[in-house]
From TrEMBL:
Domain CBM6 stretches: 564-693
Alphabetized UniProt keyword annotations: Signal
Statement: the UniProt record of this protein carries the keyword Transport: no
Top-level taxon of the source organism: Bacteria
UniProt entry tagged with the keyword Signal: yes
SUPFAM superfamilies given in the database record: Galactose-binding domain-like, Six-hairpin glycosidases
InterPro entries: 6-hairpin_glycosidase_sf, 6hp_glycosidase-like_sf, CBM6, Galactose-bd-like_sf, Glyco_hydro_65_C, MGH1-like_GH
Signal peptide annotation: 1-36
Biological classification of the source: Bacteria, Bacillati, Actinomycetota, Actinomycetes, Kitasatosporales
Protein name: CBM6 domain-containing protein
Organism of this sequence: Actinacidiphila acidipaludis
Length: 697
């Protein structure tokens, strides 16, 4: 993604942090708001729902990430817009904003607008989603509506799936009428296009992979070892004429949903049948040309000369499940054989020969949260509870440790990393990873909505098929707006099988479907039959008894890590604090930077075996190459203790020192110590690790 010529795509980082931007793990903590804020626009939006786990550690991990994702979508990235630029369709509401692609990417863009609406915006703010979808639509000289005809031809038709979802969520037939015209005209353009069009020989559409608009996402061929033609993908003849799994799956979904639109609008039966026939033929071609019996997965590519690519494409595998292209046996095989990296489902896999674990390609063996989200949704749909739980926990931790949702992460370390591209024989260009990425945040929101609560939308209403992993505990989604109803949805137990269902206290038998005609406030409670208790962090403590089931610890602390030492990359880092590796001498996987503005903070949960009040000392390893002593504010459980000082260590940010703060008051078994850039502080240090020692109590 992200090769639009008008955008400065490389984030400028000044001062002590000047190179690779990176990030890392823990699955204990929550996330805060981060980065630049969008311009809020238009009329007041519906109030956002809240996610509440009974288990405090689940709340810290998933609940805080959920709140950060809501802020990302509905505040940071909801912006005002210029009618002269965006309202080419004439269908936008001037009193409502649009959703931009994220930090560093001020536009909505067709693919981002579509994915973000499909993931979350249509449910959370239907008017905002409609405006965002229409912002990607133009009128031609004859007044026909069509997706904007830019230089990324291959990804235009994902809009059709997003538009169909918008209708299912809202029931808005006026929207559907215009969406149908837009979809039909756009698919007609693509069918007859000379570039990224239809290859009748193979029965497939040509053009780049849905997600991979950079040549780093392709092996050689169609690339070469030095990426000598272009960093983008479509200038490469082999890509432009090649056929790729995800792109053809998106076309299949477009034809299927266009047929659905035509049926709802009572178009001629012959027209409906024609779209269905095209969908059926495309599905058959995908299974014929891409399914690989040997690997038990779909191949990534088929070049025009017949060369196949038995590589793994994350979005392609997810779409095969989500769109029903894979049959049940294929679906089981994919779930069993797909390779995930330490921090989630990669974009493409494995490393191309010109990349490596040390220098992963921008679109190669690297983790994009938007891909994680699609894969997690597909896993939940398949009933793969443990795999779904792991993917969701990974993304929550990536957000929690790095002040929110970034664009790309290293798949092995979880470090924020934009990946590499070649610039010739000897040079690899290292991209930055942008903050506040909307589709990273909406990916997590969709993990909760479509995965955890199992929401799906139809003409008849909202259906719930939950996937509640063992060890997460009971969970409540409160204040969810669905059409004219305000819902509270409560899940008890664990697993995927519904034991009982009540609506407003009355037992309901059959499917958990809430009618589209429902109005007013209602409470839905679902009790699940249970699930096998896992041990996700492999510490020997079953999740059901583990106070910290996502971070390896010791049985004496019920699975929580000991209080003596914690790496800064495993803290709750908020307000712009994030992990980095652009200086040497740190321990663990990274260190924390970004503590250069008020509001930045790093928080450490001290897991104790006692609840008695006491005191302790905190030792911090830090770097300070400023000319003077720097100050921060130390607090416990949100209460300020005092301002603390960090003397200069040396003139080099590669040098580290330690400082100890005594007489820190503690109560309860899990007090949270926070170091923040508060009023009156001057901050601008780097943090490596913290050690806590009890001195009394």
């Amino acid at each position: 993604m992200r090769f639009r010529p008008t955008v400065n795509r490389r984030r400028r980082i000044t001062g002590m942090m000047t190179a690779t931007v990176v990030a890392v793990s823990t699955m204990l903590y929550g996330a805060g708001a981060v980065g630049a804020t969008g311009t809020e626009a238009g009329t007041s939006a519906p109030s956002a729902p809240s996610l509440e786990f009974a288990n405090p550690n689940s709340q810290a991990l998933y609940g805080t990430a959920y709140q950060a994702a809501l802020r990302n979508l509905l505040q940071t990235n909801t912006i005002s817009w210029d009618p002269a630029v965006y309202n080419k369709s004439g269908l936008m509401d001037t009193g409502v904003g649009i959703v931009r692609a994220g930090g560093g990417y001020p536009q909505p863009w067709t693919r981002d607008a579509s994915v973000n609406s499909w993931n979350a915006t249509s449910l959370l703010d239907p008017a905002l989603a409609a405006n965002t979808l229409w912002s990607a639509v133009d009128k031609d000289a004859d007044g026909k509506l069509q997706i904007q005809q830019d230089d990324q031809q291959w990804d235009q038709v994902i809009w059709v799936t997003a538009a169909w979802n918008q209708y299912l969520v809202t029931g808005d037939r006026s929207f559907l009428q215009n969406a149908y015209q837009t979809a039909a005209d756009t698919l007609a353009i693509r069918e007859h296009a000379s570039t990224a069009g239809y290859n009748a020989t193979y029965g497939l559409f040509t053009g780049a992979s849905f997600f991979n608009d950079g040549i780093a996402g392709y092996p050689a061929p169609p690339a070469d070892a030095t990426e000598s033609v272009s960093t983008g993908s479509m200038p490469w003849p082999g890509v432009a004429t090649g056929m790729f799994l995800s792109t053809n799956e998106v076309y299949y979904a477009a034809y299927t949903n266009l047929a659905n639109m035509a049926e709802r609008l009572r178009q001629p039966a012959a027209q409906v049948a024609a779209y269905k026939a095209k969908a059926k033929a495309l599905k058959s071609a995908i299974n014929k040309r891409f399914w690989n019996q040997r690997t038990g997965l779909y191949n990534y590519m088929l070049l025009a000369d017949g060369t196949t690519g038995p590589y793994q494409e994350g979005t392609g595998l997810a779409f095969a499940l989500l769109f029903g292209i894979a049959n049940p046996a294929q679906a089981r095989s994919m779930v069993a054989h797909a390779t995930e990296m330490t921090w989630g489902m990669p974009d493409t896999y494995p490393n191309w020969a010109r990349y490596s674990d040390a220098q992963p390609g921008r679109h190669n063996a690297i983790v994009w949260p938007v891909v994680q989200g699609l894969w997690a949704k597909a896993l939940a749909q398949q009933g793969a509870q443990t795999a779904f739980a792991s993917e969701t926990a990974r993304l929550a931790a990536l957000a929690d440790n790095n002040s929110g949702f970034w664009e790309i992460y290293n798949g092995h370390t979880g470090v924020v990393d934009g990946g590499y591209q070649r610039l010739g024989d000897d040079v690899k260009f290292h991209w930055g990873s942008q903050p506040d990425q909307t589709w990273s945040a909406t990916a997590f929101l969709n993990m909760i909505d479509s995965g955890l609560f199992g929401m799906s939308f139809g003409d008849d209403g909202l259906t719930l098929r939950p996937t509640l992993p063992a060890g997460w505990g009971d969970v409540t989604l409160r204040g969810l707006h669905y059409r004219d109803a305000d819902l509270t949805i409560v899940l008890h137990g664990a697993g995927t099988t519904v034991q009982s269902l009540t609506i407003d206290g009355k037992r309901v038998h059959g499917a958990a479907t809430l009618p589209a005609t429902l109005t007013g406030d209602h409470t839905v409670e679902i009790t699940l039959t249970g699930a096998t208790a896992g041990d996700r962090d492999a510490d020997g403590v079953p999740d059901a008894r583990d106070r910290c089931p996502d971070t390896a610890g010791t049985p004496a602390l019920l699975g929580c890590p000991g209080p003596g030492h914690i790496e800064a990359e495993d803290a709750l880092n908020t307000g712009g604090a994030k992990t980095n590796v652009n200086h040497t001498g740190y321990s663990g996987r990274a260190f924390i930077d970004g503590l250069w503005a008020q509001g930045a903070a790093s928080s450490y949960t001290v897991h104790r075996t006692t609840s008695a009040a006491g005191t302790g000392s905190l030792t911090l390893r830090y770097a300070n190459a400023n000319s003077d002593t720097r100050t921060m504010t130390l607090s416990v459980d949100g209460r300020t203790v005092r301002q603390v000082s960090f003397p200069k260590v040396s003139d080099s940010w590669d040098s580290w020192g330690t400082v100890t703060f005594d007489d820190i008051p503690l109560t309860g078994p899990d007090p949270v110590i926070t170091l923040s850039y508060g009023a009156g502080d001057n901050g601008s240090i780097n943090l490596d690790w913290a050690e806590f020692h009890s001195t009394a109590g």
